[in-house]
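B., you asked whether I could sanity-check this one before it goes into the benchmark set. Here's the sequence:
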Amino acid sequence: QVQLVDSGGGTVQSGGSLTLSCAAPGVTYRERYMGWFRQVAEKERERVALIHTDVGNTDYADSVKGRFTISQDNGKKTLYLQMNTLKPEDTGTYYCAACYMRGGCPAPSSVALWGQGTQVTVSS
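And here's what the prediction gave me:
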């Protein structure tokens, strides 16, 4: 069964750092965007960061630019999100995402496969 397994969440103080990981062993790791979305309570999941499997170009939400870095290890089919200078407003459940192949990934509807989610809590 194809799945994404994300991990690395936790509780940190404001200004701290966390690194999330996403293992994607069964995913066709080419010609698609991989990324991280986050969700707070019942709000819609918002896109945090994307990276293209082949080209490696990245895209970030304005709220995390300069603080978060998305990266990947194509050989291991693993995605990462380095989060620095965390703020309380970064609190939420973070989901790894494999977007539909050969397309963009502007919204949750563009995601073909989700991880189970990992909780990030930033205390003030």
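One thing to flag: The chain has a mean pLDDT of 96. Otherwise nothing jumped out at me.
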